[in-house]
Design goal:
572 residues, alpha+beta, Phosphorylase Kinase, domain 1, Transferase(Phosphotransferase), domain 1, 12 strands, 11% strand
């Protein structure tokens, strides 16, 4: 049976099984090829594949049984010494290798050596990632980035010799509770300067988190803090300085043809740590920018201020969905005493659309330094222009309208026909309440069921779409209720019909808050329509039909075209 003849869900299942089979055979899963061949399934296929990969990455391996640990999974014990280095002990283990504490004999200094695990236990992609980390970190020279001294290879196993940072990482410190707000601001400002240095060299970190920020003890001293307008001496209440480490997921902005590419990014899989990933990273987009690292810095600042990350979940997949769908709780609601400007800085980093965050890690650092110096910060809201721009902007949920573009066009026609029939009945002198009650009740409920069924055929329905459906259903109930109330109060038929326009306007106010502020304009038009209906009752239903149909037709055409352009771009 041809794949094209199968039901939609069966086609998705078959494509996912084919991608998984490619991966099991050691081949890169060609997600983009599958999306080009099936453009109508492209969006759902990407989301489902990314979710499947994420769940698989965090699922226990088949041999991971606590009663019978696999001996082969242990890295080969290092020799007591090799070359110029004497191994002193193990510092920690990661997904790709083990970090050892060592002494460099020639310089008599303590270093950290990160060694790849046994060659037969590591794939080519692991080794490529390990080399990518070495190449990325070796290019960076900054006081707040762990320095790489040497990159080498021993018996086919690559290793990196790094600066040894004595002390804990930030994650271990946060177990004790949140930092004082000024210490949190200073620490993240220093880390942001380090990240900006990496960005200046064309490198995204992509896995910033408290566990990758080491805390180095320094002298307790006054530190000069450069702000936008002046330099002031700030006395630090902490003597811990951050050191950004672990560039294992680092990505260059531009890669030469000879560079080894990270296969997981090229296939669209999710990379990073749940809860610290930006929404665009969590949804496996390839076009990541410095705003991705700015988001992670915002998460770190949030956790430093509150003692917990913005989103807490019971499993990685739930965490990733929360990152994409939900807004964080304001830090001041969790911990009192946090300055409002510092909260604004933090929440600006955590905006879902990348363009609403700081344009660079350097800008974030500058605002944090300005806050420490007692100066105004750029993230502080000011003026009516700021208020209206925030109110009218699109939210991160607006993309769901691509699923509804064509359906809203159909809906605009259906609503106009319903209102036109009502107006014709009025002109014909039909004054029976039951006629209009049956027409609107049967018409709206039947059409709503058809519309929802058609949407379900096009793929999984998101949580935000269900919220919008509830708002629409509330508007339908309000419309039908007007006819019932007319009967109960003994009012002439259609006396309360302007209330239908008011109810429709209220539904669009809800849509404005969830999808796009432009729907506030639509709501105002419908409120004005209600006034016009009361003023000109002879054509009230026609006015309602025209304004309501336009309210759905205009955005419907817009997002239908957006959908078509995205499908064309995927197939080209």
């Amino acid at each position: 049976m041809s794949l094209a003849t199968l039901p939609r869900d069966d086609r998705l299942a078959a494509l996912l099984a084919e991608l998984a089979d490619q991966q099991r055979r050691g081949l890169p899963a060609d997600l983009e090829a599958a999306a080009r061949q099936h453009p109508d399934l492209a969006d759902e296929l990407r989301v489902l594949w990314a979710t499947a990969q994420f769940a698989a990455a965090f699922a226990p391996a088949p041999g991971d049984q606590p009663t019978t640990p696999a001996v082969a999974a242990e890295p080969v014990p290092p020799p007591a010494s090799f070359g110029d280095y004497e191994i002193l002990g193990e510092l920690g283990r990661g997904g790709m290798g083990v970090v050892y504490k060592a002494r460099q004999k020639s310089l008599d200094r303590i270093v950290a050596i990160k060694m790849m695990r046994e060659a037969r236990l590591s794939s080519e992609s692991d080794r490529a990632r390990f080399r990518a980390e070495a190449e990325a970190a070796a290019r960076l020279k900054h006081p707040n980035i762990v320095t790489v001294y040497e990159v080498g290879d021993r018996d086919g196993l690559p290793y990196i010799v790094m600066e040894y940072v004595e002390g804990r990482n930030l994650s271990q410190r946060l177990v004790e509770g949140p930092l004082p707000p000024r210490d949190a601001a200073r620490l993240v400002a220093e880390a942001a300067r380090a990240v900006q240095h990496a960005h200046d060299h064309g490198i995204l970190h992509r896995d910033l988190k408290p566990g990758n920020i080491l805390l180095q003890r320094t002298e307790d001293r006054g530190q000069k803090t450069e702000s936008k307008n002046s330099s002031v001496l700030c006395l630090l209440s902490s003597v811990l300085s951050p050191k950004v480490s672990d560039f294992g997921l680092a990505k260059r902005f531009e890669m030469s043809p000879t560079s080894v590419r990270d296969w997981r990014t090229q296939t669209g899989d999710i990379v990073g740590t749940p809860g610290y990933m930006a929404p665009e990273q969590a949804s496996s987009r390839k076009d990541l920018t410095p705003a991705t690292d700015v988001y992670a810095l915002g998460v770190i600042l949030y956790e430093c201020l509150t003692g917990r990350p913005p989103f807490q979940a019971t499993n990685p997949v739930q965490a990733i969905m929360m990152v994409i769908e939900q807004e964080p709780v304001a830090p001041r609601l969790l911990v009192s005493g946090i300055d409002r400007d510092l909260e604004m800085i933090c929440l600006k980093c955590l905006q879902k659309p990348p363009e609403l965050r700081y344009a660079s890690a350097g800008e974030l650092a500058a605002d944090l330094e300005a806050h420490l110096a007692g100066e105004a910060v750029s993230s502080h809201p000011s003026g009516l222009g700021y208020f209206f721009s925030r109110m009218m902007r699109e939210t991160h949920h607006v993309g769901v309208l691509e699923n509804w573009g064509l359906l809203w066009i159909y809906h605009s026609v259906a609503v106009f026909v319903l209102c036109l029939l009502t107006q014709v009945l009025v002109w014909l002198g039909v004054l029976d309440h039951i006629t209009y009650l049956v027409l609107w009740t049967v018409g709206l409920i039947t059409w709503g069921a058809v519309l929802w069924r058609r949407r379900r055929r096009d793929g999984p329905i998101l949580f935000v779409e269900r919220q919008l459906a509830h708002a629409w259903a509330a508007g339908v109930c309000a419309s039908i209720a007007t006819f019932v109330i007319e009967v109960m109060l003994g009012l002439p038929v259609l006396t309360l019909s302007p209330v239908i326009a008011v109810a429709a306007g209220m539904v669009f106010v809800f849509k404005a808050g969830v999808l796009s502020g432009r729907f506030y304009v639509t709501a105002v038009v419908l409120f004005v329509t209600a006034i016009a209906m009361a003023s000109v009752p002879k054509v009230a239903q026609l006015l309602l039909g025209v304004s309501t149909a336009a309210a759905f037709l205009v955005p419907g055409v817009k997002y239908y075209r957006v959908r078509k352009r995205s499908l064309v771009s995927r197939t080209s």
